[in-house]
Design goal:
mainly alpha; rod-shaped
Length: 161
Amino acid sequence: MTTSLPPTGKFPAEPSQLEREELDAVYLELRRSYRGLMVSRGQFRGRAERSQAAMQQLETRLREIAAREASVRREAYEMLEIVTHVIGELEDAGDNLVNEFGAYQMGRRSMQGAGFIGRLIKSVIRFINRWTSTKQQLEVMVEKQQTMQAALQEGTDGTDR
């Protein structure tokens, strides 16, 4: 409810020149205007306090979202690091296997295959060891992914405030 307050010019600048009845009427009008002003001020203050509380609540929610996003981002970088490491390991093992097989093929033609077959077998063993290690790292990555998904689902309750 908005009440319009009378302009200050409505009230006489020199009350000494007013008759008693007119003075009483001006005083009562001034009192009603002051009361309306105080009610208006109280409403404004209430709105301002509610707005401030809403802003604080929004700030808290934004900080929570930012913290969750930072955590997810950190975990995503960790997963990327694992994937990069795994791919590098497999590339090294595969390159080593290909090189040793090529050496074995060349050695077989020159009747020196026995030494090369030993190196080829060692290369296969290294590949198997790296493959096993890689699978373990991938399991860690899958667990991290599930943790990230759970954190994201926990943080998203379906309500946008």
